[in-house]
């Protein structure tokens, strides 16, 4: 990769790139799409595991995330609780289409790839498959939202299969109708909330792993993706080969909901990993081995 190509990838919000655009040993590159409030940064343990296996693996920062993320002064110490509850989010207008455009811009650079979504990132993966199926060799969902019969993530979130999600018990930080985004204070020091967050997202990890993982999350996530139609279309995205990796110990996206999405969409190659929601962190070596075997 020359310097001009490298700068182009950086401008597109790509992190942890290794030889992007080069197929290794006949294996396509893997492009990762992060979940809510996150960035490609929390996927670094996984992309590093894959690059150390000789794979091209990279993660994209979606618009308004990562280097473009919203980390306001009220989110720093000491925190301004009033501003946290009232300030309108400047990234509220980001849409699913914006996410798709960002991912497609990277796919056009690195060629047909295995597109991997974690959590809310699955919605963008499906929409990208609908838009440019010829650029996606395989779609992979890591305990991720995959819409088909139910058109939006919001519909899946409200389903009876999601009733066991511990996300429903996490206390809200702000009224979304006021701040115009899903806002959460990941930098809380409330021991009860931290205990609930660990149980919800990373029960198979340590307290240190919890703090390291949520410490890089930003407070706001735009609503646009969750309420947009991201259902796989039979004539486009529905024809892309797809794999679902069930995180069987996930308390955020419960197994019942994962099974519903697999049943609704059908035609999944299904694998199981005994992992929490952030199994991309706690089980990175095992997950990398699984992904390395996909074509």
Can you walk through the features of this model?
36% of the residues lie in helices and 13% in strands. The chain is an alpha/beta fold. The chain has one domain (3-73, 94-165, 223-292): 3-Layer(aba) Sandwich (Rossmann fold). The protein has a seven-stranded mixed sheet, with helices on both faces. A two-stranded antiparallel sheet has the order 6-7. Helix 5 (121-131) links the parallel strand 4 and strand 5 (136-142). Helix 2 crosses helix 13 (284-292) and helix 4 (96-110) packs across helix 5 (121-131). It is globular. Residues 1-22 have low confidence and may be disordered.
Which spans have pLDDT < 50 for at least 5 consecutive residues? 1-22
Number of domains: 1
Number of strands: 9
Structural class: alpha/beta
Which CATH architecture is right?
A: 3-Layer(aba) Sandwich
Q: Write the H/E string, N to C.
A: HEEHEHHEHEHHEHHEHEHEHH
Distinct helical segment count: 13
Q: Main β-sheet: number of strands, strand sense, barrel status?
A: 7 strands, mixed
Radius of gyration: 18 Å
Q: Output the CATH topology.
A: Rossmann fold
How far do the termini sit from each other? Answer: 23 Å
The CATH class assignment is Alpha Beta
Please identify which CATH superfamily we are dealing with: Alpha/Beta hydrolase fold, catalytic domain
Strand order of the largest sheet: 1-3-2-4-5-8-9
State the shape. globular
């Amino acid at each position: 990769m020359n310097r001009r190509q490298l700068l182009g990838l950086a401008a597109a919000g790509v992190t942890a790139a290794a030889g992007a655009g080069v197929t290794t040993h006949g294996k396509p590159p893997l492009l990762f799409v992060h979940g809510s409030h996150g960035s490609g940064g929390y996927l670094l343990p996984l992309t590093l595991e894959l690059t150390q296996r000789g794979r091209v693996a990279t993660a994209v920062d979606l618009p308004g995330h990562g280097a473009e993320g919203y980390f306001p002064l009220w989110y720093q110490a000491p925190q301004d609780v009033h501003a946290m509850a009232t300030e309108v989010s400047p990234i509220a207008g980001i849409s699913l289409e914006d996410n798709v455009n960002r991912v497609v811009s990277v796919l056009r650079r690195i060629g047909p790839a295995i597109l991997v979504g974690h959590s809310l990132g699955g919605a963008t993966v499906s929409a990208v498959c609908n838009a440019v199926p010829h650029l996606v060799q395989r779609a992979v969902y890591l305990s991720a939202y995959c819409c088909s019969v139910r058109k939006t993530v919001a519909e899946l979130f409200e389903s009876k299969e999601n009733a066991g999600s511990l996300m429903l018990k996490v206390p809200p930080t702000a009224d979304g109708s006021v701040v115009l985004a899903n806002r959460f204070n990941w930098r809380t020091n409330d021991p009860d909330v931290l205990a609930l967050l660990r149980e919800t997202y990373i029960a198979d990890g340590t307290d240190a792993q919890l703090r390291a993982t949520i410490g890089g999350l930003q407070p706001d996530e735009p609503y646009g993706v969750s309420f947009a139609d991201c259902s796989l279309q039979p004539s486009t995205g529905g024809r892309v080969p797809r794999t679902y990796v069930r995180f069987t110990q996930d308390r955020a996206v419960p197994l019942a909901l994962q099974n519903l999405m697999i049943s609704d969409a059908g035609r999944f190659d299904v694998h199981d990993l005994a992992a929490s929601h952030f199994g991309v962190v706690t089980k990175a070596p095992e997950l990398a081995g699984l992904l390395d075997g996909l074509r």
